[in-house]
Amino acid sequence: MAFVSSLALLAALLVAVPYAAHRLRRRRAEDQPFPPARLVAPLPQQTRRPSRLEDRALFASRAVAVAALAVLGATPLIRCSRLSVQRNGGASVALALVVDDSMSMRVAFAGDNGLSRLERARQGARQLLASAREGDAIAVVLAGAPARVSLAPTTDLGAAQQAIDGIVASDRSTDLEGALALARGVVSSLPQVDRRIVLLSDLADGHPDGPPLDDPGEGGGGAPVPVWIALPELRGDSTDCALLRADRRGIRVHVTVACGPGKSAAGRDVVVEDASGKALGRGSIGHGSSGEVTVLLPSDDAVPDRARLTGTDAIASDDVAPVVAEARRGAIAVVADTSGETVATGGAPIVEQALASLRADVDLRPIPAPPDRAADFADYLGVLLDDPPGLTPEQRHAFAGFLERGGVALVALGSRAAAAPLGASLDPILSRASAWVPVDRSAGADLGSAVGPLVGSVQSLADLGAERRATLDPDDARAFERLVNWTDGAPLVARRTMGRGEAWIVTLPFSVDASDLPLRPAFLAMLEGWLQVARQRATPRRSDVGTPWKFAGAGDVRVVGPQGDVSSIRDDGVARVTPSLVGRYRIAVDGQDEARVAAPDERELDLRPRPYSPAAAGARASGSRASVDASGEVALVLLGLMALEMGLRLWSRGRDGADSLAMARSDEA
User: Fold this and answer.
1) Does a structural domain hold residue 640?
2) Structural domain tally of the chain?
3) Residue 433 to residues 291, 321, 336, 428, 476: CA-CA distances in angstroms?
4) Is 41 within the bounds of a domain?
5) What is the pLDDT of residues 177-199, one digit of tens each?
6) For the CA atoms of 37, 39, 42, 45, what is the dihedral angle to 10 degrees?
């Protein structure tokens, strides 16, 4: 406390003045009647009662009034340690509160037992809101990946308070740079000249050796937006280990264990449990910060539910991982008949060689015919059909289910597709048969009609050297989105959405005997674009927390997570769900059930804080000490004390008058 503040509070010592006044007060001694005294001549002698404190209620009110006056005088000089907004000339400010809601903020706050870093950050945000005034614009940005705007700039302080109260702990990774970029974006366009960003975070974003955080953003008029990294007590290293995955293969469960840099889980065990919590197997962890532990199950009939890491560390939510069947790498099924194709280089069909040259992270599986059971499509991301002679009813049913669940198909139409036998068709992709018709050998693509993945390489499709091509029924042609057309407007490459999946068609077969299409750069560009769509629409069994799950073409999406229902949002008609907690999620998409797992991001295990530049110290933005303006409340207390004193004085006078009257009556008697 400053010397001036202490000196102002010393005025409270004046409470001794009313005390001394009450002690020195003398009252007339009370007359007591003594009958024999009437026989003695009276002498003029005055007696006094011993000094004592009288009218204690009146004294108490006066003493409190003196103390309140001392507090009133010292109020402008008193400051306390709390976050507040410092104003330039008293003008309103535009304030962006960046609150880190990542997994590292679950660590217990060192300054208070049982309080997490996130709760301390929320307290700091509430203190800043308490110092806001009418006209200030407040925005709330969350720094858990992906960074997002929780509250757009508003002058409604009540809405800002609700936004802060609504922040809950999550297991997301940290995106400080993205959050600061969003904060600069939301405040830079506001009319307030004074714009600030306050970052409430432990700065543990997995980049302790990264460039220091500072305030390079530009506000309106070229003025920088100051960044204040508040609450330095949130920063600090700690020990955290996690189970990243638990995959079952037969009677073995392979569990991946990871710890922060320089940390170790040595001495701890991995226990595999069933749904009731019964231990089915145990494995010990060796030395090191990461590795794999294999736990043996008692039998093939055992049903493991989760793997658990024994012991304790800074964060408990990442010490449990759901056990799932081992996920194999996605595959592309290729159905191509090589009997009528001459491959100049020998070996596999040219479409398989083209897919292999793309070095995509998928397996190529040549199969003789499309599967006729839905279960056989389980491991396929996409199916490529090169001039198929139609599909049987069983194949059509299985193929339709594959597309509805998010599968992707690529069908090249040729002579065999146009001459499908009776009972075979390409339904549901094409409702009617295609025709195989002659075409001028100089015909090629309409270069101006290319969109999507073919824009950059469409020049290579100017002359395809084809003698024949496939044509679609007009109704089928209208159902497809054109990626590139022939010069006469007919579709050359087109696609359509079917359920959650997508079907592509090419009106030329993938054979060098039929055309030069497989020899052109646009052919590889088309295959690469199709593979990208297949990977995007694939159903991931496991992904990092915070990675959005998209359900293209889905109507009804319901998700149940570790703590109950998870809401979904729609972007351009596509349902999207973002898991925020580690664990198993059960999803129902248009009545079809599936399970997914959200796993922790290994970078979030590094609890070392990221450095920041002196420019982010916040001297221009805010302050950690706030003045206490309680003058209004103290003034009301003083008015109340004055009224109380007046009432006590009136009551005291009335009591003295009643005593005097009683004494007079006793004398008369």
Assistant:
1) yes
2) 5
3) 56, 50, 19, 11, 9
4) no
5) 999 999 999 998 899 888 889 99
6) -30
